[in-house]
């Protein structure tokens, strides 16, 4: 029998989950943003990177990758 705690733990683990620590890196004593920033919302809002597009979770702005 599976308990509720086991179900919740199974749901929590997701493949490829991103965090704030992945959005920045330090180079030469300065913070550098590694993810694209939304042009509408400004420098505080990062865009989610998908395989064929990048999109903003706040305003919905989307840029599609060019097909080659």
Write structural notes for this entry:
The protein is an alpha+beta fold and 68 residues long. The protein has one domain (21-68). The protein is 13% helix and 26% strand. The strands form two sheets. It has a three-stranded antiparallel sheet with strand order 3-4-5, with no helix packed on it. The chain has a two-stranded antiparallel ribbon with strand order 1-2. Strand 1 and strand 2 (30-33) form a beta hairpin.
Q: What general outline do the C-alpha atoms trace?
A: extended
Q: Reading side by side through the largest sheet, how are the strands ordered?
A: 3-4-5
CA distance, first residue to last residue? 51 Å
Please tell me how large the radius of gyration is. Answer: 17 Å
Oligomeric composition of the shown chains: single chain
Strand content: 25-35%
Say how many strands there are: 5
Give the count of structural domains: 1
Mean pLDDT: 83
Low-confidence stretches: none
Helix-and-strand structural type: alpha+beta
SSE arrangement, N to C: HEEEEE
Compute the number of helices: 1
Largest sheet: 3 strands, antiparallel
